[in-house]
Design goal:
heterodimer; A: alpha/beta; Rossmann fold; 2 domains; 8-stranded mixed sheet; 11 helices; 28 strands; B: 3 helices
Chain lengths: 487, 78
């Protein structure tokens, strides 16, 4: 299925670009040739479960899609993981072979899996793997890869291997979601991208949102831009230098990006901004629309478990209540129960690794999953109050960090803000704020304006501790609202 | 001396955060209902302020100060 899609794209878009990095361009045609070789190489191996511990790169994408085409499972591990963590996951998820770009095993090879070094230098023609006992080489055929005809791979009928993605783990130990490529592709609204449509990969490929982005590019035949590194500044540079027309990223990413973006930066190429992974505030939507008046701005509700559920582009935060009326046979249905959003999705994950293969254990027996997102239905809108796990309990009164952040983030003095619960001996928890100040503001004046603004909040919601900080950490491009353990 | 003044200033700040008119706060002022009138949320804020300024606070240490002097003494005993 995957190989067929790439084959069709290569035939249709002979010389159009599939992947662009700051120093590399890969056409659909070249990529298809590479994919066939990687798929054949992986097929030849007497192993079923692979893992990758590699930075986002054309080579990683070849392995991900190659494993899908070869009907093998692929676990994606963050390139930032320590060797110990990688070892742990390999054991826990029964991985046979790991592809990595540096030694994970160490000299005494403690790994349960074989570790294969993937080499990406130009000398080795892009991609090769080496291991003592095997000698797998997946080497580019040289400079003539872009000549000759592309054959349609009409006979390919493989179902596509299983993809294994770790959940973001913002609410505890990450779980490993098993995905079928068929379900990933079904989440995408099919359309044909224009030849100049370039999407910035602002999420990592080992995150579900990054994989969705890859699936989107393959299905619509768009071009995917891979930034050199993963910081917001790297993404902004790639956005401009490599001429991104579409950017899919989190609200947290955009808050950082807006803070770093020069006022006169030419953003003329940008045509669409898609926000996902977190609830978006009306203030951010309005700010983005004012900064990028020519852009279509959409926000999507998606999760690793349920996949992409709904996309909204009417310029308003929250979701329209009309989604609660979807028919029983809809691919994704929504309902609100006791203030929490519930979802029933038919194109979500297969289940978590190591669990019952017949039923998704995160769903209730009636097929609904409690999302952990607390909402309030008001008039024609479903508004997000925050994650259940992020509720602050102030003397028995529930406070939602998003409500506090919404008030504070609108202030001109505030570049970034994070509201969270801080343990307190008197009332259990108090609301605390971390604030990154905008240039030219003194802490004293800023605190005054923050306190003034917060006076509209109910008493229990008023921040009792305000800290001015140089930066705010994010977990997987989401704002972490859990109290640091050392504070 | 400065600890005393700092703690009195903190309490005045908290009262100001509540939008209350400025009240005289003295060393022997009672902190709660019979005196300055700090309620649980004000005390929670005071405990966070003290912890931030001095690295510890009487409430976390299970000491319940009754007057401003009790707080000052907590730190002089540390």
């Amino acid at each position: 299925m995957i190989e067929q899609l790439v084959a069709d794209a290569a035939a249709d878009r002979h010389r159009d670009l599939f992947l662009v990095t700051p120093d590399k361009e890969v056409t659909y045609k070249i990529f298809f040739a590479r994919l066939q070789r990687v798929r054949a190489a992986l097929e030849s191996l007497p192993a079923q479960h692979f893992a990758c511990h590699l930075p986002d790169s054309p080579e990683l994408i070849a392995l991900i899609l190659g494993a899908a085409a070869a009907d093998k499972s692929m676990l994606l591990l963050s390139a930032d993981f320590s060797s110990e963590l990688v070892e742990d996951y390999l054991t826990r998820f029964n991985v046979d072979i790991l592809f990595c770009d540096r030694a994970v095993a160490g000299e005494d090879n403690r790994l349960d899996a074989e570790s294969w070094l993937a080499e990406f230098s130009d000398d080795t023609k892009e991609l090769s793997f080496a291991v003592d006992s095997h000698n797998l080489s997946v080497v580019e055929s040289g400079g003539d890869a872009d000549t000759g005809s592309v054959q349609h791979a009409d006979s390919i009928e493989r179902s596509g291997g299983e993809l294994r993605i770790l959940t973001s783990g913002t609410t505890g130990e990450p779980k490993c979601a098993r995905y079928h490529w068929r379900d990933l592709l079904q989440q995408i609204k099919p359309y044909r991208a224009t030849a100049d449509e370039r999407w910035l990969l602002a999420y990592h490929l080992n995150h579900f949102a990054g994989i969705q982005m890859l699936a989107h590019a393959v299905l619509t035949r768009a071009t995917l831009i891979l930034p050199e590194a993963t910081g917001v500044a790297d993404n902004i540079r790639a956005m401009f230098e490599l001429k991104a027309t579409h950017v899919s990223a989190s609200p947290t990413f955009w808050r950082f990006a807006l803070a770093q973006l020069a006022g006169d930066a030419d953003t003329g190429n940008l045509r669409q901004i898609t926000l996902g992974s977190e609830a978006v505030s009306q203030h951010l939507l309005d700010t983005l629309q004012a900064r990028f008046p020519h852009c279509r701005i959409a926000h999507i509700y998606a999760s690793t478990e349920d996949g992409s559920c709904v996309s909204v582009a009417d310029g308003r935060a929250g979701l329209p209540v009309s989604i609660l009326q979807r028919p029983d046979n809809a691919r994704v249905r929504f309902k609100v129960e006791e203030g929490e959003l519930l979802i029933s999705s038919r194109h979500g994950m297969l289940g978590y690794t190591g669990s019952d293969q017949h039923r998704r254990e995160d769903q209730r027996e009636d097929g609904w999953r409690a999302t952990g997102d607390l909402v309030e239905v008001r008039d024609d809108r479903i508004n997000f109050l925050g994650r259940r796990s992020e509720i602050v309990n102030v003397g028995g009164v529930k406070v939602y960090p998003l409500e506090v952040e919404a008030v504070v983030s609108e202030l001109p003095a505030v570049k970034l803000v994070r509201a969270y619960g801080q343990d307190n001996p008197v009332v259990g928890q108090i609301v605390a704020l971390d604030i990154v100040l905008d240039e030219g503001w003194e802490e004293k004046d800023a605190e005054e304006t923050v306190r003034q603004a917060c006076s509209v909040l109910p008493r229990h919601s008023v921040p009792r501790s305000i800290n001015f900080v140089a930066t705010i950490d994010t977990a997987n491009t989401k704002l972490s609202r859990r109290q640091d353990t050392d504070t | 001396m400065s600890t005393e003044n700092d703690i009195i200033a903190m309490i005045k700040t908290i009262l100001q955060h509540q939008g209350l008119p400025e009240t005289d706060v003295e060393l022997e002022s009672e902190l709660y209902d019979d005196g300055i009138g700090l309620d649980s949320l004000c005390v929670a804020e005071l405990s966070a302020m003290l912890e931030k300024a001095y690295g510890s606070d009487p409430y976390t240490s299970k000491v319940l100060p009754r007057t401003v002097t009790d707080i000052v003494n907590f730190y002089s005993e540390v």
